[in-house]
């Protein structure tokens, strides 16, 4: 294993995120994307990628969306696409927005606490 | 690798089959398949590349849908077999115009139909047609002769047996 340099820290955003971390934050990140505006699966995937979470495959994304819907945090409806097949649009419910606010706050507290336990890579060299 | 209409159609058929095997309700199957197709229509990906093999994707959804317990399936099969047996015996008795076990063929037929109602309902619920939520049309075409053949086979067995008995006599 190479040593943790500041250069490597920057690269962490794309390549070195363990899937467990992704799995933990994905439902909340998906919920946040949908809460921002009603949107469909592919657009959510693009947002996650733009946000630095890498490529989230359909096989990972849709079960998360469906779970959120089953939990009453999202609703969905099919809308006609322009000249193409329909798109399934998702919208956050009031319970979803509430959940997002509470869990986001908890997530920030959690990551702050975890941060204090980990060595700061910028100060190691 | 990008998707061709054939790979999408093959994937659809295989995914419907594997979701059926996982006992996922028909309306959920429609949703799941339409999500896959709508997604790959946007990305141009091969469905297997984006969602994994139909078998694995269907299995990954099993914690979302619990399969009915095994005893449920066994009960359905036993009741269906008993109904088939009683209806067959009843039909033979009616056709040959002689009682079976001292009772009228019509009575056995009626008993068989009564025993067959619960399993027929259970099987019917599981085998409801899968509709595409985008269009409301069936997702997988079932040929008309399929249902016809399904009912024709047991009727044919009874008729052939009856004719055989008449010839032997």
TrEMBL record, chain A:
Positions in coiled-coil regions: none
Domain Transcription regulator PadR N-terminal span(s) in chain numbering: 30-101
One Pfam family this sequence matches: PadR
Gene3D superfamilies attached to this UniProt entry: Winged helix-like DNA-binding domain superfamily/Winged helix DNA-binding domain (1.10.10.10)
PANTHER family: PADR-FAMILY TRANSCRIPTIONAL REGULATOR (PTHR33169), TRANSCRIPTIONAL REGULATOR RV3488 (PTHR33169:SF14)
Entry protein name: Transcriptional regulator, PadR family
Taxonomy of the source species: Bacteria, Bacillati, Actinomycetota, Actinomycetes, Geodermatophilales
UniProtKB/TrEMBL annotation, chain B:
Membrane-spanning residues: 71-94, 106-124, 145-168
UniProt key word Transmembrane helix: yes
Keywords noted in UniProt: Membrane, Transmembrane, Transmembrane helix
Keyword hit for Transmembrane helix: yes
Xref: Pfam families: HAAS
Taxonomic superkingdom: Bacteria
Protein name from the UniProt record: Uncharacterized protein
């Amino acid at each position: 294993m190479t040593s943790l340099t500041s250069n490597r820290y920057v690269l962490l955003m794309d390549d070195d995120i363990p899937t467990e971390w992704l799995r933990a934050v994905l439902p909340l990140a998906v919920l946040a994307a949908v809460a921002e505006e009603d949107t469909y699966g592919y657009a959510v995937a693009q947002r996650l990628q733009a946000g630095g979470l890498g490529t989230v495959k359909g096989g990972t994304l849709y079960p998360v969306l469906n779970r959120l819907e089953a939990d009453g945090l999202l609703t969905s409806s099919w809308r006609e696409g322009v000249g193409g097949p329909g798109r399934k649009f998702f919208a956050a419910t009031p319970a979803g927005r509430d959940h997002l606010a509470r869990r986001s706050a908890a997530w920030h507290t959690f990551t702050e606490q975890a941060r204090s336990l980990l060595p700061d890579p910028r100060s190691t060299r | 690798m990008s998707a061709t209409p054939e790979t999408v159609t093959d994937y659809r058929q295989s995914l419907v089959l594997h979701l059926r095997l996982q006992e996922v309700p028909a309306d959920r199957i429609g949703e799941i398949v339409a999500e896959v197709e709508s997604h790959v229509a946007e990305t141009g990906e091969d469905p297997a590349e984006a969602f994994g093999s139909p078998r694995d994707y269907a299995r990954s959804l099993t914690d979302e849908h619990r399969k009915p317990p095994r005893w449920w399936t066994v009960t359905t099969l036993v009741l269906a077999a008993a109904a088939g047996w009683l209806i067959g015996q009843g039909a033979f008795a009616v056709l040959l115009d002689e009682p079976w076990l001292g009772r009228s063929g019509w009575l056995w037929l009626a008993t068989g139909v009564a025993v067959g109602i619960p399993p027929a309902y259970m099987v019917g619920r599981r085998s409801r047609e899968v509709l595409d939520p985008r269009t409301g049309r069936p997702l997988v075409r079932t040929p008309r002769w399929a249902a016809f053949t399904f009912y024709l086979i047991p009727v044919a067995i009874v008729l052939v047996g009856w004719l055989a008995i008449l010839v032997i006599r």
